[in-house]
Each structure stands twice: as structure tokens, then as C-alpha cells.
Amino acid sequence: MKTVTLTLENPPELYLEGQNITPDNFAGKTAAELAAIDIWEGKLKSPLGKHFAVAGNGGATAADTKIVLRGDCTRVKRIGQQMTAGEIVIEGNADMYIGGWMKGGKIHVKGNVDSFCGIGMEGGELIVDGNAGHHLGSSPRGEWRGMQGGVIRVAGDAGNDTGTFINGGTIIIGGDADIHISTHGEGGTVIVKGNAKGRVGGQMVKGDIYVFGEIENPLPGFKLVGEVEQEVDGVKGRFAHHIGDLGERHPVSKGKTVYANLYTQI
Amino acid sequence: MAKKITLNMITQRSVEEGVGIVKGKMTPDYFEACSIIEMHDDDVKALGLVPNQLVRVTSECGDVIVKAVKGRQALYPGLAFIPQGVYANQIVPARTQATGEPQYSGFPVTVEPAPVGERRKSTLELVQRAVGMWKGDQ
Amino acid sequence: MAKKIENVGCPFCGVCCDDLVVTVSDDGKKILEVENACIIGSTVFHRAMEDRHALPRLRQPDGTYKEISYDEAIDYTAKVLQKAKKPLIYGFGSTNCEGMAAAAKVAEKAGAVIDNCASICHGSSFLAIFDNGYPSCTLGETKNRADVIVYWGANPAHAHPRHMSRYSIFPRGFFTGKGHKGRKIIVIDPRHTDTAQVADIHLQVKQGHDYDLFDAFRTVLRGHDIPDEVAGVKKEKIVEAVEILKKARFGTIFYGMGLCHSDGRNHNVDIAISLTRDLNDFTKWTIMAMRGHYNITGPGAVWSWQYGFPYCLDLTKRDIAHMNPGETSSVDLAMRDEVDAFINIGTDAAAHFPIEPVKHLRKHPWITIDPHPTMATEISDLHIPVGIVGVEVPGIVYRMDNVPIQYRKVIDAPDGVLNDEELFERIYQRLCELEAEDAAKTPAKTTPEGVRAGE
Amino acid sequence: MSELLIKNGFVFDPLQGIKGDRMDIAIKDGKIVETNTLSSPSVIDAAGMTVMAGGVDVHSHVVGPKVNVGRLFRPEDKLFKSPFKTCNRMEMGFSVPSTFKTGYDYARMGYSFVNEAAMPPLHSPHVHEEIRDTPIIDNAAMPVFGNNWFTLEYLKNNEIENNAAYTAWLLRATRGFAIKVVNPGGTEAWGWGLNCDNIHDPVPYFDITPAKIITGLIETNEFLGLPHSVHLHCNNLGNPGNYTDTLDSLRLAEGYTPKNNFGRDQVMHITHVQFSSYGGDSWKNIDSQAKTIMDYVNSHDNITVDMGQVTLDETTTMTADGPFEHHLQSLNNLKWVNTDVALETAAGVVPYVYSPNVKVSTIQWAIGLEIALYSNDLMRTFITTDHPNAGPFTRYPRVIKWLMSRAARDETMKTFKWLNRTIESTTIDSIDRELTLYEIAQMTRAGPAKALGISNTYGGLAPGMDGNVAIYALNPENMPSNPDMIESAFSRCAYLVKDGIVAVKGGEIVAEPPKRTVWVDVKVPENAQVQRDIYEHFLRHYSVGVENYQLFDEHLHNPRVIEVDTTQ
Predict the structure, then answer these.
(1) Percent with pLDDT over 70 in chain D
(2) Which residue numbers in chain C have pLDDT < 70?
(3) D506 touching C, CB under 8 A?
(4) How far apart are CA C358 and CA C351, in angstroms?
(5) Arithmetic mean of pLDDT, D358-379
(6) Chain D interface test: which of C305, C314, C409 (most D C-beta within 10 Å)
(7) Is the N or the C terminus of chain C less surrounded, counting Cβ atoms within 10 Å?
(8) Given C238, C268, C289, which residue is the final one in a domain?
């Protein structure tokens, strides 16, 4: 695997839109060629090299390409958007849409990220050591086919609207989650290791949610049906099993109504 | 020691504020319509306020002096109301939950009797002072 | 001889009353009397002639304003737009659709973000509509058919004074000959509002917990049990209300800022839409946003047919439009310091934004386009006066139910004052000239491409 | 004085019976003229290419409130799907394109006239605002009548003359073009959450049957002598077994003959008939009854139809058939917009995915093609996708490819998951017919223009007609062996001349000639009763004043009036 290192030397006044920073785009390009690819600041299009020092060449394919971002990328959006393979490491913070519409490969952010990260995700792995903003692993506006696959792992807290319209894949939040988890969900799994503020599983059709801590405001549409012993993300525990959202439609499979499952640790 | 309570604040339209807007935000109508707070009687009592006493309302992002009045539209204890507009917006948190809309309703504030000598500021003073353009009453 | 003008539309709220009668002086310059309007609407007309400027005013180094010509103001605006990397054009609650279309042309040419007051008002409704649709109707349907009316987080007694009498609670329609007597009214609000005074049932929901209450309604509707109390409302009251909804022949849920401005925002509307849809399995139900300004529905319509998005349009890439409230919404752009010029038109951002984003925006050039002095004009670099739509300028506005209403002109604007459409057309022309001048200087300049990774 | 000569093309003009002759077309000041009247024209060399009149679309949802809500509520229809800007304005959206993209894309396909399929009268100012912003193509819009309270009340009492006077008033008030009827009676019933299941199911309260609404409107239409006929979206549309209801509706036209001065021969146009040609009694056993329907149509000259071809795309359904959209939503559980319009109509909008993996979708695809392939008279059978209901209009070239090439049909069928079930449930696999360029010209310009009653202006190349000419890079004497080339030639025409101005060249927009709004102004005798009824309904039941309801002239864009005088 070949590594390209981008060091942010000339930060933007506003924000940079770096949707071209993906192993797919970097593959087969030399450092000099990479310095010439487009990056946007508002309506201004510039070569990547205007803002970043580029070291190293891309690999032959996306899978052979690793991109390391250094410097303060707090104001850089869309890194790794639509990537299909390869690896990205962001040494510090990053802004919005990190790993948006990601299909494969791996992104590791060592700091925090802002909202809309991992939206429309179909596959791959997005790891955030810090906190995430709102709409983590959610669906883009209006799209009913939300997260389809892959894994999102956030060590810290997440904002509101985690996994809206989730259809598949797994989101693991190490800390607390704000309101709205798996709203409109029709599959997939969200695991909250800390507390959840409320509106957990609202309008949910199918899928699983685990909350290890407390739910401050549980919804009336979820009903306790029993207790189960399960291993969740490598941890064994006893959980209270609720089904819901009883206010929402539910499919019938083999004569049985399928509900969404909410497990809270006992 | 001055009393101080925490309430849940909402800021919404009132018809007086509507009239004030179309008359002009620098008119007395607007000033009287918007620089007020309504609370439940229990909370007014807890603060030991007399009718029309000035209070200081403080949120996570600022504070404003307004007059505590008895409104027609009853609130439950713990809920407070300032009509939408310049006064409310001194304390409304700009956080949007990634929707674009600020937290106009449902944010914690503390309410306390205004310190002696404090007054309700004019709309012009509030806005111009916030952006460093206030030159004082000319 | 005074002249009576009939069928005049009211330029205040989204009720868009079109039955006003305005008496104007013989010379067509003064408004003498306004009939049929509410107190706010009538004040709009009476204040129209006061406190007006005939020329743009530019802020001087000493902080005062100096009058300049329209040509100078247009040149200034075009240059601000051209120079900024990401200018924001925001407002449009009080302009006509012709003005909105012209402004969009300017934004597209200049590479700007263009947004309207829905961004801080019913933008959440759009987000909910994107996710869940909108089973609605025109207001005439409610008037002619509805026997159950719900106001949820809306207070028309204050915000839309003639709404209840024209369309919902009081009017006698084709199938509703008994008017108020034939209707059940449910008001759901944390306050006992003046609207709640006329309700048969008032549910005092715990502020910020409407979503939970909607979930309870839906759960009961599907025949499941709920806890004894949800969001401060007793189970019996919820069950009773659900029965009324189910037994209606035709119902409309009108909702307002109580849903859009509190925790969860769009999802409060989202689940209200789900409830409305569920109720259509039993009988006929519709839902409607209580839109605020008289033409705040307009930009959503115009920009949707022009770009496919109702608000928060990022046109900076010039090839394609991008929309994502939370990112491309005015308050978020301001708070994140993501824009570097601000044009405020047909609304008063300095009064209606929280003060924090105002401070952020004021770091950059700020131009206000408004008939009257406002809070925004008092902190602007430039104030460009324009005619008042619905008083001095005719045009199409969209009522809260998306019905277009053709508004009339009743008096002349002050001499020389442009309307919004003319102003934006001239800014557009000036931008084209500046672009041509630039192209002459740097012939090989490439145009930027769109946000379209993956292709 | 602008002059243009299109030289040496293979000309197809069914209105004149020209079948691919090599000839020249001359245009002067925007009109077709005899070639010998030109003095020094600019010349387009069309040698080796196909020359037709500008296309005419009989039925497409392109402007107005429900189209716009389709745009508004589907941001995902734009995401990563919009092309880069090459024209004056951005072009956004796939299944429901922006007005600018609509105009540009129709022009690129060689179209010059598009008839908006449904205008809610209360929203007519909105329709006209969008028409203004749809570049290049001329538009007309049909107000909906089939659930209008005035219409229901007059027809219930057999008051054809009053209904005619009201119709004339409404056409003028909305600057409308023709009488559109959508699920007659059923949409009014939807006001109470109900429907009319067949044409004899009476409308709640109004106590009139859909059948009577349909015949009453045919009588009204012929009483007035409008350019177009009644334009019907049948009851019980979209449901298995509905072909019997469709036949019932078709039979209602028996005995009626067209009376008009516009060259129209039909009294009823059945639109997107694919959706109304289903056999079976459930989604499990749905089958094609296209042949049954077309046998009837073939033997009755007073009927025209359009296809409503399913294109197997993700699209957005939208119709004034409110109960149908509600039903659709309950099938696919996707977001649902409904707008009931007081006293007049309703509208529903739901996204829909027609997938080659879904049996019903592929059966629908086959039924649509069968409609055209079983037609004996392609001057009465038109290409549409009921845009955007069965697919976006930008797929017309693909529909043409399927009609012109059995190989292309086979290629598509290979992708079907339920190929055998599709073949069993339809007859598509037994049809070898391949349509000719002449037949395509019938289906896409000459036929629709004649049915709309505008064939003196649009759809042909005779002297005196509008100078609207489409030139396609297809050589009839040497047609491409790869049918995909047919699709690409019709997608991006070599030239579109609109009113004598070259608007498209090499598939790209090069100019935006002014577009028109076409409407029908009918003069009727004074009718005091109808005036009184209008006054009463507006006073008591409408939510806007009658003066504000009628379109102001200032909101009508570049009008072209077709005048009808019934007083003589």
C-alpha cells in the first residue's frame, strides 16, 4: 500500500470541500498530479496544492492507496466521500460529510467530526476517536434508503438524528447520544454505550437498538416484552427487550408481525 | 440575597408584537409588546416579584432585561414566555440540531429580579451594541 | 374624490386575505381607509407611507448614512457579490415571486447561497415533507368539509388573526352549514392560548415533548396500550382525542412553530404527517403548516421549479444546486463563519435571528433591501429601499396552502423607488458587465465545476 | 427577414403523407413556406438525415402545483443525478426536472409543443408562472373538469348549455386549453376518503355517475366545438382487472361524432391507456388486456389513445386521481403528498420504482408496448410516458427504440427477473412488429397535433405552419444495426428549428427562441344563470374572490389564442 500525506499548510478563510480526497481519485496519480486536483472554497476552485503540501504518490488502485491528512482539518468537508476502497487517516478533527456515501475501505479520524458523517453509507468502516455531530450514519434529505451497510464507530458522543432511515450496517457510539436514534429505521443496528436522551426508535419499522445506559425519555410506542442475555459488541450483558414503534406500520413475515427491537441494559 | 429560578423558555408570536413589527421596531408599540416576560404565578411568587417589575433573563448565550407581566395566556409552572423578536433573540441559542432553525423554544434560562438601576434597553441599542455600532443615545 | 379598490390582498401573514377594500386618495398616493383587514393588516397599509427613503443609503466611515444613487448601490452590490467567495442572499418573506425569480438569477450568476425565512420558520416542515410527504388540502376544503379541526403548536388568534374565521372554525361552507356549531376543535399547546379559549379540548402538552404525544396518538390509533401519562397528558384524554379524530368525516391538523421551533424540529412535523396518513385509513384527514409571512410559501415554490429545492440553496458551484439544511441554512452558515457577504431582503434578520449569528454575519459586508428602515438597515453597510409588494407593487404570492393569489397595487411607490424585480434584474445586468470586464482581462479563466464526486 | 433552408433531408410528414422523400423545407419569418419564396437563406445540410416537424406531446405533467411538489419533496431526485450546466440556467432533477431542464430536454429531443396534462383551476397563476420559466417549447394546459362542482351540478340536471357556458368561462379564467377529466367523480369522493370504483358508482352527495359526467362532458365539448376532445383518465386506473371499466368508458363515446373546425376526428382521448388495460383480479395474476382494448380502439374511429409507457426507472407518480395515489402509497409505503383542491379536484404524488426485478413492473412495460404494436392506426396512438408517472419524458427515445426494434425489446427483456411470468401474462414475446420512422412521426407529431386540433400550426411541415423542424442523425436508407443508435439520435437531435430559429445544434441548446402559451378562448352567449352560480359559489364556498381567481393578463406569458365562436 502506498501512502500519500496531505498537510494542511494554507487553511481556508471559509471551508474547503474535499470530495476529491479519496483513494479512488488518488490512485494512479503522482504527488505532482495530486497537487493539481480540484478543491473548492465557496465558489473558488483551486488546486489541492494551494492548501495542502502533498507528499507521496497514490497506489495503483484505490485499495492500494492510503491518505494521511495532517494539520487542522476542522474546516475541511467531504473527505472520503463516495470512496470504495483504500484507507484514509485524519490525524485531527474534520468537518462535515466525512465518509458520506462511502462504499468500502476505511476512514479513521483521530479527532472530532461535525454533522452528516457517514450519511448514505453502503459499506466500509468509519472510525472516529472523538465526538460526532448530528445525522451520523443518517440518510441524505428525502432518501428513504438510508445506511445500507458498513460500520461506524464513534468513541465519544453523537448529536441528534443518528441512523435516520437506517436499513443495514452498524453504528456504535461509545458515549451518549442526543435525541432521535434510528428514526424511520427499517433495519441495521445502533449501539449506544452511554445514555440516550430520548425519541429512541420513533417511527421505526424494523432493526435493532441497544442502549447500555439510561433513556431519559422513553417513547410510549415501545413495550417491554421480556429479558434477554446477549453479547453486544464483544460485551455480554442482560437486556430488557422492548418492541416498537407500535404506532408505526410493521411487516408480517411468515404469519408473524416483525417489530423493531430496543434493548436496554439491566 | 436575590432569588433566582430556572425556567424553560419559549419565544413565539403575539398579536401585539405583530402590530409592533408593522408599526416599526423602533416604536414604543414594539418596545412595550416585546420587552416583556410572562410566567406562571407560582414562579412569579417564588421570585417575589411585584407586578411589572423588571427581571434579568439569562440563557447559555446572553441576557436581557425585560418586564414581568401577567399575560392572558396561561403557562404551567416552570414555563416562561417572551414574545419573539429583538428582546427574545438576545437569549435564544443559535444551535439548530442541524436543521437550520435556532432553538427558539425550549431552552433553559435563569430569571432574577433585575439589579437596581438596570433598564430595558431600546431595540436599536441592543442590536447596534451587539455588533459594535452603538454610539449611545444621541 | 377618493377611490375604492376592492379584492386587495393583505401583505402580512400567510392567511393571504384577498377581500380587503382600500380607499386611496384621488392622486393615488395616499391610503385613506382599509376595510376587512385585521389590526395588523390594516396597520401595514397605514404605515406604508411613513418613514420611507427614496434613495439608497451607504454607511460612511463615521457611521452615518449618506444617500447615493441606485446606480451606485447596484454597482456596490454587484461588486460585493462578485468579490465574496460565498455570499448569502436571505429573506424573501415579503417579496413577490417575480422578485424571487430575479434574485435566483442573480444568485446563480454570482455563485451565492440563496435562502428564505422558512430557514428559521417552517424549514423543518420542508425537512419533514422530504422524508414523509404531505397529505394536505387547500383551505377551501377545510372550510367546506371539515368537522374536526386541530391546532397543534399553533396560535392563530395571535399569529394569523383571520385564519379561524375565514377557513377553519367559524365559516359555513358547502357541507358545513352549521359553521362553528358543527365542528369539534382540539388545541394542543403548552400554554392555554387565546386559540385554546375556543377549543372543545385543550391538551396541555409538556413543552418539547410533542413527538412523544404524537407517538402515543399513533400507538392508540393502532389499538395498543400506552402509559398512564405521556408528555404531561393523561391517557384518558389521549384516548378521547384519538376517538374524535377517528370519527371525523373530514379533519385538518394545522400546526405551527410549537413543532418547528422546539426539540426535534422536523421530526415533530414528520410524525404529525405519519399520524395524518394513519388517520386516512379510517377517514379523511389533512395537515397544513401555518406559514408565517404572506409570501413565504412563494420562494419555496419558485426555487423548487427553478432548482428543485425550496430553500437553503447553495449555488456557489454554478453548475448544480446543492441543498442541505444544517449546512446550507443561513443560521448555520453564519454560526460556522461559512459565508463572507450578506444580502438581507424582505425580512429583518437583525431582529429575527438570534443575536449570535447577527454578530457573525456583521463581520462581512451587509446589504439590506427593504422598503422601511429596520433593525437590519441600522447595522448595514448599504440600505436599498424598494416598493412594498401588495401595496405599491403587484404580483403573485402563495398562500399557506400553496394557492397562488394575485396581488394588486393600491398606491404608487415614492418617486424613483425600484421594485425588487427591477432591482435584481439590474444587479444581474451589472454582474454580467463585471464578468465581461473580467473575461477581457483574463481570457483563459475556467469556470468551476459542480460538487459531483464519483463521476 | 430571416430565411432558412433545410436541404436534402429525408422528410417524414404524415399530415401531408410525405414518407421519407428527399426534399427541402423552407422557413421564412418563422413560418414554413414554399422553397421558391426564399431569396438568400442560411442553409442546413440535412443530407442523410431524418427531417420531421417539431414534436408534439399530447400529455405530460411538466408545470403546475403537483409537478412542483414532486420536485420539492424529492431532493434525492437531484442528488448526484443532475447534469453539469451547459445552458443559461442550471438543469436539476431526473424524474421531475426543473422548468429549465424540461424546456431544454424537450428541445434536445426535437419537440416544440407540450400539453400540460392537468391544471387545477384554482392554481392557474402558478401553472402560468412555470410556463414562463420553461424555455423554448410552447405550452398549453388543460384545466380539470371531471370533479368540478359546477360541472357535477349542471350535468346531473342535463344542463349541457349551462355547463358549456361555465366551461368557456373557466377556460378563459385559467387561460386553459381543453377539458381534462381525471377519475370522474372518484376524486370528489376522495374528499371524503372514498372513490368511485366503476363508471356507474354514484358520486357521494352529488348523486351523479362517472358515466354521466363523461358523456355530459363529451356533449359539452362538441357543443362548443373545442379544438381538442375530452381527455380522459379512466376510473379505476392502475388496478388489476380494470380493462372492463376502460371498455365501459370507451363505449360511452359510441354515437358521438366530432363537431369542430380544427380537423379533429375523435370525441374522446383516453390517456396513458397502459394503466387502464389490466386483466386478472389481483397483483398476483395481473395480465395484459392491451389487445382487447386496442381491438376496440382500432374499430372505433372516434377514439384516440396515448401509451403511458413504463420505462423501468425510479420515478415520481403524480395525478389528480387522489385515491389512486393513496392506494399506491399503501402498496409501497413511500412518502405521500396529497392536495385536495376545494370545489375542483385533488392531487397525489408518490415516488415509485419500476424495476426489471419486479413482475408487475415488467408486465406493465409489456402492456404499454403492446398498445402501440397492436394499433392499426398510429395517427390515433401516441407516444407518452405520462411523464413522470410511468417514466420521465426523457425516455421517449428509448420507447421509440423499443417500438422500432424487436432486438431492443429482447435485450431489455433479458434483464427481467420474472421473464417467464412476464411472457405468460402478456403477448409481447409473440409480436415481431417493428415500427417505421413514418409511424414514429405519426405517433410523436402528426397524430397528437391532429388530436389536439392544432394541426394547422404544429406537427407538420406544410407551408403556413410554424417553422418548427427537428432533424435527426438517422439515415432511413441505412438505419443503424445497433438499436441504441436510434435512442441516441432521438435523444439529442442534430437540429431543432423553433419558429425559424436554430435552438438546438448537435444536441446542444444554442439559442432560446421565445416560447408561447396556447389557450382556447370560447365565445358563448351571455348566460345569466351561470353568472349567478359563479357569483354564489365564490361568495359562499371558494376561499378566494372571483376577481382574483381569474388570471390577470400580466401573468399570461406570450399568449397564442385559439378562438372559438359558438354564437354564430
Answers:
(1) 100
(2) 443-455
(3) no
(4) 9
(5) 98
(6) C305
(7) N
(8) C289
Q: Is D9 a domain residue? A: no
Instruction: Please report whether residue B135 resides in a domain.
Output: no
- Nearest alpha-carbon partner for C196 in C230, C237, C150: C150
Amino acid A56 reads G
Alpha carbon of C395 to those of B44, D63, D67: distances in Å? Answer: 49, 19, 22
What is d(CA B19, CA B29) in angstroms, rounded to the nearest whole number? 8
Q: What is the pLDDT of residues A47-68, one digit of tens each?
A: 999 999 999 999 999 999 999 9
Whether D295 and D303 have beta carbons less than 8 Å apart is answered as no
Is C453 part of any domain?
Answer: no
In sequence order, what are the residues at sequence separation of 6 or more whose Cβ sits closer than 8 angstroms to the Cβ of residue C215? Answer: A202, A219, A220, A221, A245, A247, C230, C271
Question: Of C108, C127, C138, which to mutate for an interface test with D (greatest number of D Cβ within 10 Å)?
Answer: C138
**Dist CA A80 CA A244 (whole Å):** 35
pLDDT recorded at residue C415: 93
3-state secondary structure of A252: strand
Q: Count structural domains, chain D.
A: 1
CA B13, distance to chain mean position in Å, is 13
Give the Cα separation of A42 and C112 in Å (integer).
8
pTM over 0.90: yes
Give me the residue spans of the domains in chain A.
Answer: 1-86, 115-121+130-266
Residue C202 CB partners (closer than 8 Å, separation 6+): C186, C187, C188, C189, C192, C196
C337 plus C435 within the same structural domain: yes
C126 vs D contacts (CB less than 8 Å):
72
Question: Do C375 and B22 make contact, defined as CB atoms within 8 angstroms?
Answer: no
Distance from CA of C60 to the nearest CA of D (A): 37
Query: What range defines the domain where residue B36 resides?
Result: 5-130
Report how many domains make up chain B.
1
Provide the pLDDT for residue C450. Answer: 37
The separation between CA B45 and the C-alpha centre of its own chain, rounded to angstroms, equals: 19
User: Are the C-beta atoms of C164 and C198 separated by less than 8 Å?
Assistant: yes
Question: Smallest CA–CA separation between A140 and chain D, in Å?
Answer: 7
Average pLDDT of D453-473? Answer: 98
**Domain limits for position C422:** 57-119+294-441
Q: For residue range D177-199, what is the model confidence (pLDDT) as tens digits? A: 999 999 999 999 999 999 999 99
Instruction: Let me know if residue C276 belongs to a domain.
Output: yes
The reply to whether C265 and C389 lie within a common domain is: no
Residues B41-59: tens digit of each pLDDT:
999 999 999 999 999 999 9
In a domain, B138, yes or no: no
- Our count of domains for chain C comes to 3
pLDDT tens for each residue of A204-251 = 999 999 999 999 999 999 999 999 999 999 999 999 999 999 999 999
Q: What is the CATH number of the domain that holds B121?
A: 2.40.40.20
A-contacting residues in B 52-111 (Cβ below 8 Å): 97-98
Q: Does A142 touch chain D (CB under 8 A)?
A: yes
Q: Which pLDDT score is estimated for D59? A: 98
Domain boundary among C11, C27, C47: C47
Residues C136 and C276 in one domain: yes
- Only one residue has cell 427613503, namely C53
